[in-house]
Amino acid sequence: MTVLGLRANLAQFSLLVAVNALVGGVLGQERTVLPLLAGSEFHVTGHTAALTYVLAFGAGKAATNYFAGTWSDRFGRKPVLVAGWLVAVPVPLLLVWAPDWGWVVAANALLGVSQGLTWSTTVIMKIDLAGPARRGLAMGLNEAAGYLAVAATAVATGYLAARYGLRPAPFLLGLSYVALGLGLSAVLVRETRSHAHLEARGHAESALTDRQVLAHTSFREPALSSASQAGMVNNLNDGLAWGLFPVLFATAGLSLGQIGALAALYPAVWGVGQLVTGPLSDHWGRKHLITAGMLLQAGALALVAATTGVAAWAWAAALLGLGTAMVYPTLLAVVGDVAHPAWRARAVGVYRLWRDGGFAVGALLSGAAADLYGLRAAIWTVAAITAASGLVVAFRMYETHPRANRLDARSGGDAGR
């Protein structure tokens, strides 16, 4: 029997939380090690060249996110999830055996495709199961699991790299995550598309083509388009943190262990924080949490650019993680609030297309700025862009959670439903 709600679907929801933790772990295998491999083993010069792997990852993931939503509606959620894990199988092996930087870039293109399929599908499946009342909590748990795993794996790979070298040990951990995630998804995860069909019965008919969903989510609908731009800028600064923070820390003379700890602190606070901010958005509403989170991220990036030393950078990393925690699950909840269940999976895919396109934009922008003006100038640039994005949310987005602001959601959100 198909029933909506976290309590009614607790076993399957918990399994999907565990699966998304493994998805995050596969991403986390790179956070500490790859920026250091670029210079030490592959002798890549120039920040833009070194960030080509972030560009490849972001482009692959952004494009695949769009198709993940469409395919999930057409073929079902589970087949897309399993396909994503199959794409991930060669990634750790390519990183272990890579004879030149081109192999690393190719591995990250595959990683982006895999993450687009797996992470997008776990998001869609949890939205299906949770129903409308606890969507913020559901997204908080999903994203917390993924980014806590990113953080834990960044610490673990930093330890493995310090003890056994940059290759192969850190990537063997990633390979074990892929094997476990593929097994759980193929054997134990159940299809959730029927839950979306059940929820759709409570809404007026809303048949949109793929092109209409793309335009609606990207530009036309104020809340959806505001969420899309904020998501892109959020991952723009995450791409900066992923690709350039370890380089900045290394140039300041920090040890590999210190770099690994700082690289892990940001996603750790991000992950834990979402356990609070996700359900908080169900009570306080979405808009102001997103606005405050974007402005806090901007301030944290400015603190990284303006200071030096482990203590100051640790504070900045923690603030950046907190700001991201305020934004990340809440933006997904906005999409779930506004999009009709009949085309919600596609709207999630479009939103994640824009959001993860931020990795590619961030790699190009921050890499070019760092090459031309230095690492700190690149960070200042991204801080300014992040602050501007928060102001766009403040002036364009309306409140989407019906319990937080029923009148605003009804008058502004009917076009989306």
State the share of residues found in helices, binned by percent.
over 70%
Total DSSP helices: 19
CATH class: Mainly Alpha
The CATH topology turns out to be: Growth Hormone, Chain: A
Radius of gyration computed on alpha carbons? 20 Å
Show unreliable segments. Answer: 406-417
Overall number of domains: 1
What letter string, H or E per element, gives the SSE order? HHHHHHHHHHHHHHHHHHH
- State the end-to-end CA separation: 26 Å
Report the strand count. 0
Keywords: Cell membrane, Membrane, Transmembrane, Transmembrane helix, Transport
Protein name: MFS transporter
Pfam families: MFS_1
Domain Major facilitator superfamily (MFS) profile: 1-401
Descriptive account of the structure:
Residues 1-401 form the Major facilitator superfamily (MFS) profile domain. The chain is 81% helix and 0% strand. The protein has 417 residues and is an all-alpha fold. It starts with 9 loop residues before the first helix and ends with a helix. 60% of the residues are buried.
List keywords for this structure.
417 residues; mainly alpha; Growth Hormone, Chain: A; 81% helix; cell membrane
Q: How would you briefly describe this protein structure?
A:
It contains 19 helices and no strands. The protein has 417 residues and is mostly helical.
List strands and helices in order, with pairings:
Elements: H1 10-28, H2 34-40, H3 47-50, H4 52-75, H5 77-88, H6 90-97, H7 101-130, H8 135-164, H9 169-187, H10 193-200, H11 210-220, H12 222-243, H13 245-251, H14 256-284, H15 287-306, H16 310-338, H17 344-373, H18 375-396, H19 406-413
Helix pairs in contact: 1-7, 1-8, 1-9, 4-5, 4-7, 4-17, 5-7, 5-9, 6-7, 6-9, 7-8, 7-10, 7-17, 8-9, 8-14, 8-16, 11-12, 11-17, 12-16, 12-17, 12-18, 13-14, 14-16, 15-16, 15-18, 16-17, 17-18
Pfam family, one: MFS_1
Protein name: MFS transporter
Domain Major facilitator superfamily (MFS) profile: 1-401
